Prior knowledge:
This protein is α/β, with parallel strands linked by helices and 241 residues long. The protein has a single domain (2-238), classed as Alpha-Beta Complex (Spore Coat Polysaccharide Biosynthesis Protein SpsA, Chain A), CATH 3.90.550.10. 35% of the residues lie in helices and 20% in strands. Strands 1, 4, 5, 6, 7, 10, 11 and 12 form an eight-stranded mixed beta sheet that branches. The longest helix has 16 residues, at 223-238. The radius of gyration is 18 Å and the shape is globular. 34% of the residues are buried.
Amino acid sequence: MNVAILLSGGVGTRLGGDIPKQYLEVCGKMIIIYALESLYRNKNIDSICIVADKKWHDRIEEGINAEVLSNSMTSEKKIFFAQPGRNRQDSIINGMKEIKIQCHGADTVFVHDAARPALSDDLINACFDALQGHDGVMPALPMSDTVYSSDDGVSISGLLDRSKIFAGQAPELFDFEKYFDANEKLSEAELLDIKGSAQPAVMAGMDIAIIPGDKANIKITTREDLATFEHFLTTKKSSPE
């Protein structure tokens, strides 16, 4: 069984007053719904755990009923909720703990962010295609700019080899039990210092494969990102099938 965790616990509201960005509407749908639709219709995903604050559950369920279920040709998949943690990684752990309750014998966990709504079927499938022989998979983009290091943030200390540096993206896919164990081994200080989903896996010695990322798979952080996503949707709608 392959279970997706959709992280929607962020509380950043600078884009929409008192509304977290993932619940803003773009082209008539909440941002979170776009990622949910992609996960729900994909053949590799069996169940979905949404990590979101309780006060948003009713609104998310309304969107699921109105958009995801009504427009899907896929047989019904289980969708359930978990509570956000103290940071992103803690939220992932909460999601995995809920998966252990809701889904017996999960084989993999597929981690994605609600703030990355342009998740494509091709990228999801590429993650699962690449998993064989590895403990996890992470899409990544090569660095196109020259990359420097600075010890003090004021002056340049060195030049890095950009051919060996990649910018990781969500989603990430992991062997469920190995990844759960890797997170269980984190100390409190380590957990709160985690910078990316794959970090606990790497710390535990898991073999994480890199596959080509998708430039369209943007993370909505600024108003410019919001405009880019809206342009992506309108362009997609106007393109011939």
